[in-house]
Structures are given as structure tokens and as C-alpha cells.
């Protein structure tokens, strides 16, 4: 790890960690997806919930009166609420199994993502008035400040939002939090005067 000023630039060198890199991509995907969907929590949601609950109750009421009692011989003493409870239990079980499967699938996808990221790759980040550059063996990425829509500290990292993806400088690239805060202040000073351009 190294953090050194060169002229008016800041040069930071660190070793990329696959687990952290995969975590950044996963969290960025969730954050961007949540930003794209902005539901309005107004009276319509409450009304739809009430209508859905009432419709479900009347469905089972009619199912009891027209099918279960005359055709299947269900005892008339069994009320609609009891039928709802009986049908709810397997639905809850199916929901629990679905949630467990989705969590397992997410864990498998994250492990596969980590496996595709090369370990022990040294990354050199250069920050200047013109923009920010990430360089590693075989690849290079340069960003003009106008293409950066947001800069923030998340989970101990300095993250740069660019349209639909995120670049970052990890916390372990700095000697301590004070150094990281000082670098972030310089970065924001470079970025602030530029107008963000959204392609």
C-alpha cells in the first residue's frame, strides 16, 4: 500500500481483493436497482391491500359454500377463517422454501463472481484536476470528473458512481482514516467545480 502526492496529483497503490470487489458490484447493483424503482407510498397501496384481503376472504367463502360443503362433504361447522388458516400454512412453507432457495442462489452467484476476479492484482489510482485513473496489469480506466455523478464513503471505501456502475478506492489503500478523509477532501475539491454530464 502506498499513498503519495506527485505534483498536484495523488497516487495510490493497493492490491485488489476479490471478495471486496465482488461485494462492491453486488451492492452497487442493488443500490442502482432501488434508485430506478421509486414507488409512491400513498393511499392506493392501502386500498389495494384492503381490496386484496377482502377478495381473498370472499373467494374462500364462496369456495366453502359452493365446493367444499356440497361437493366434498366438508362439515358446515368449519368456518371460512379456519379454511384460510389451513390453506395459509402450506403457502407459508412454500414461501420459506423459496426464500431459502433465493438466498442460496445469491450465495452461489457471489462465489462465482469472486472466482472470476483475479487475486493479488496491484492497482494504481491517480487523482488529478483532469480526472481519476485506475491502472492494473493489462487494463486501464480513466474517468473525467464530469462523468462522475456521485462520490461517497460507503463501507469504508471511497466510491465513485458512474452512470450504471461504480469504481472505488478501498479502505486498506490508506494508512488510517485520517489519511482517507484528507484524500476524500482533495477528491471532492477536484470534482466539485465540474458539471456532471449524463450521457
Report on this structure.
The chain is an alpha+beta fold and 199 residues long. It has helices at residues 18-36, 43-68, 80-116, 177-191, and strands at residues 2-6, 9-16, 121-128, 131-136, 139-144, 150-154, 157-162, 165-169. A five-stranded antiparallel beta sheet has the order 1-2-3-4-5. A three-stranded antiparallel beta sheet has the order 6-7-8, sandwiched between helices. α1 crosses α3. It is elongated and about 90 Å long. The model has no long low-confidence stretch (mean pLDDT 81).
Give the topology, please:
Blueprint: E1 2-6, E2 9-16, H1 18-36, H2 43-68, H3 80-116, E3 121-128, E4 131-136, E5 139-144, E6 150-154, E7 157-162, E8 165-169, H4 177-191
Antiparallel strand pairs: 1-2, 2-3, 3-4, 4-5, 6-7, 7-8
Briefly characterize the structure.
This protein has 199 residues and is of the alpha+beta class.
Helix segment count? 4
> What low-confidence regions span 5 or more consecutive residues with pLDDT below 50?
none
Helix and strand succession?
Answer: EEHHHEEEEEEH
Q: Bin the helical content.
A: 40-55%
Report how far apart the termini are: 35 Å
Q: Structural class from helices and strands?
A: alpha+beta
Write down the Rg: 27 Å
What characteristics describe this protein?
49% helix; 25% strand; five-stranded antiparallel β-sheet; 199 residues; 4 helices; single chain; 8 strands; alpha+beta
Amino acid at each position: 500500500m502506498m499513498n503519495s502526492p506527485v505534483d498536484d496529483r495523488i497516487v495510490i497503490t493497493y492490491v485488489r481483493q476479490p471478495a471486496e470487489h465482488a461485494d462492491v458490484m453486488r451492492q452497487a447493483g442493488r443500490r442502482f436497482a432501488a434508485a430506478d424503482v421509486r414507488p409512491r407510498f400513498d393511499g392506493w397501496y392501502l386500498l389495494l391491500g384492503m381490496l386484496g384481503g377482502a377478495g381473498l376472504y370472499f373467494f374462500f367463502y364462496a369456495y366453502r359454500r359452493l365446493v367444499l360443503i356440497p361437493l366434498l362433504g366438508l362439515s358446515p361447522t368449519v368456518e371460512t377463517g379456519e379454511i384460510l388458516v389451513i390453506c395459509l400454512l402450506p403457502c407459508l412453507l412454500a414461501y420459506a422454501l423459496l426464500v431459502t432457495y433465493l438466498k442460496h442462489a445469491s450465495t452461489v452467484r457471489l462465489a462465482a463472481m469472486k472466482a472470476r476476479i483475479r487475486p493479488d492484482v496491484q492497482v494504481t489510482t491517480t487523482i488529478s484536476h483532469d480526472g481519476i485513473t485506475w491502472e492494473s496489469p493489462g487494463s486501464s480506466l480513466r474517468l473525467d470528473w464530469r462523468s462522475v455523478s456521485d462520490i461517497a464513503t460507503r463501507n469504508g471505501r471511497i466510491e465513485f458512481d458512474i452512470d450504471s456502475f461504480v469504481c472505488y478506492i478501498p479502505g486498506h489503500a490508506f494508512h488510517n482514516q485520517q489519511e482517507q478523509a484528507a484524500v476524500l477532501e482533495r477528491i471532492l475539491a477536484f470534482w466539485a467545480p465540474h458539471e456532471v454530464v449524463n450521457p
